[in-house]
Design goal:
Shape: globular
InterPro entries: Gfo/Idh/MocA-like_OxRdtase_N, Gfo/Idh/MocA_oxidrdct_glycsds, Gfo/Idh/MocA_OxRdtase_bact_C, NAD(P)-bd_dom_sf
GO molecular function: nucleotide binding
Protein name: Oxidoreductase
CATH topology of one domain: Rossmann fold
Pfam family, one: GFO_IDH_MocA_C2
Strand content: 15-25%
Keywords: Signal
Structural class: alpha/beta
Distance between the termini: 50 Å
Helix content: 25-40%
CATH superfamily of one domain: NAD(P)-binding Rossmann-like Domain
CATH class of one domain: Alpha Beta
Largest sheet: 9 strands, mixed
């Protein structure tokens, strides 16, 4: 078994030769080193600090800004002073704004790159405004709320030649690349099914009524928070949402069709990163909802199961990928595995990343020297990470990855006893934010730059649309439309409110 994996140079190209030839970069995590991404200010020495601004200062933005603290944080923008207060205090000298358009107009000449960590519905327009000005962009996952916006950002990155990165940290993990190398080595044979799941949503979904309107808090610019979305009254949700997460904000917006992308948007860009890379998924041919509970016109359902079908890709056969959300545990068990076999857990040896994504890997056991010699326990063990993961079902075996691909596990576990990782075939990331910073200074493209992240986001978002309809939706990626349901096509593109300018490429 180990000797087969060790012959990756010949074995990989024999197994998937026509698919991989020329497809894997010789340098960099996500693109060709011959076409480096440059910021508006051109090449910067690795020792010269970038001037970085952030659109979003509270919530997830805090972590992204912290991930870039090796550089100069020169401007901050947030529509809610209360949520931004902690970050504002930490970076006292940074210019402060509520409207990112005003920030870019006034500070743009002094900015090299911008972090965008807003609710999903504002990702695309904020990124486009930055890219038009020649600024590198780091955009939190999911890249956009709609398929059309994802396509636009992909095209804009090609046009403006700026450094880009989507904030799906798992794409930078050692485990994501190791999973690809193991699969390409032929260790588990052709993969025909992937099952992936998450415990999200961990916010309310399945509601169909909006609480009574309330006065807007003095710290919040509600109109700017709505941004391109259609106007509606502010509400905190009252006593039912007194836990601080509010009906819409600061956190629960994820569950609303108009603002977020539900569980898919929150975790699919992490959990499905390894399948997307290892199986070179491209675009699916169809998507269908197998089951959902709490269907309504306002929010994503309380739970769902969605199936994507992918055509053959070169030497890789057609693939069925099933997504499950609202799970407390593993939703399926591959045939032939013992009942006490743990699907997720310590696996093949991986090296932790050096930024916050690496901390997640280390916390889940991925940073330990666990050369995969851990037998299954006598009794079934249910770890917290059993609620987020993916199973690859191959013709000759099974491989699993967890939330951020921190652990890559072969099943049954005894297959790992004498297994040696395939020789490294892919480059490794220095850390998700560092990867982007390097690209902004003229280095190799980041691992999840928009030529990767755009198409990846597109196919994930097809699942969000499928939740509104019954039956299978047939997808034509080239024409960017569903071929058997015209009603579904209207959800591919956002309805942009008057007063907001989105310049299509």
């Amino acid at each position: 078994m180990s000797s087969r994996a060790n012959r990756i140079s010949r074995r990989t190209f024999f197994f998937y030769g026509s698919l991989l030839a020329g497809a894997i970069p010789a340098a960099g995590c996500g693109g060709s080193s011959s076409t480096p991404s440059l910021t508006r200010l051109g090449y910067k020495s690795p020792n010269e600090k970038l001037n970085i601004a952030s659109i979003g200062a509270g919530g997830r933005a805090e972590g992204d800004i912290r991930g870039c603290e090796s550089e100069n944080i020169v401007a901050l923008c947030d529509v809610d002073d209360k949520q931004a207060a902690k970050t504002y205090a930490q970076y006292e000298k940074a210019a402060k704004y509520k409207d990112f358009r005003k920030m870019l107009d006034k500070e743009g000449k002094n900015i090299d790159a911008v972090i965008i960590a807003t609710p999903d519905h504002m990702h695309a327009i904020a990124a486009m405004w930055c890219m038009e000005r020649g600024l590198g962009v780091y955009v939190e996952k999911p890249l956009t709320r709609t398929v059309w916006e994802a396509r636009q950002l992909t095209l804009a990155a090609e046009k403006y030649k700026v450094a880009t990165q989507m904030g799906n940290h798992g794409y930078s993990n050692e485990g994501t690349r190791l999973a690809a190398e193991v699969i390409w080595s032929g260790e588990i044979g052709n993969v025909t099914e992937v099952h992936a799941w998450t415990n999200r949503p961990i916010w309310p979904q399945g509601m169909s009524a909006v609480p009574a309107a309330e006065p807007v808090p003095s710290t919040l610019d509600w109109d700017l928070w709505l941004g391109i979305a259609q106007e509606r009254p502010f509400t905190s949700g009252g006593a039912a949402y007194a836990d601080g997460d509010g009906f819409y904000l600061p956190f629960n917006w994820r569950g609303f069709f108009d603002f977020g992308c539900g569980a898919l948007g929150d975790m699919a860009c992490h959990i499905l990163g390894a399948p997307n890379m290892a199986l070179r998924l491209g675009a699916p041919s169809s998507v269908a909802v197998i089951r959902q509970e709490g269907k309504n016109d306002l929010t994503f359902p309380s739970s769902s199961v969605i199936q994507f079908e992918f055509p053959a890709r070169g030497s890789m056969p057609p693939l069925k990928l099933v997504w499950y959300d609202a799970m407390k545990d593993v939703p399926m068990r591959p045939a032939g595995l013992a009942e006490d076999e743990m699907l997720l857990g310590p696996g093949l040896k991986v090296k932790p990343c050096s930024d916050d994504a690496g901390a997640q890997v280390k916390a889940s056991g991925g940073g330990k020297d666990t050369t995969a010699v851990q037998a299954a326990p006598a009794e079934p063990v249910r770890r917290p990470d059993q609620a987020n993961g993916a199973v690859f079902i191959g013709e000759n075996g099974i491989l699993t990855t967890d939330s951020y691909a921190g652990n890559v596990r072969l099943l049954p576990a005894e297959r790992m006893l004498d297994f040696k990782n395939p020789p490294q075939f892919l480059t490794r990331s220095p850390g998700h934010h560092r990867d982007w910073i390097r690209a902004c200074k003229g280095g190799d493209p980041a691992c999840s730059h928009f030529s990767v992240a755009g198409p990846f986001t597109e196919w994930i978002l097809l699942g969000s649309i499928a939740l509104r309809f019954e039956g299978k939706l047939e997808w034509d990626a080239k024409r960017m439309r569903f071929t058997n349901n015209d009603a579904a096509n209207k959800y591919l593109k956002p309805e942009i409110r008057k007063g907001w300018d989105f310049h299509a490429v």
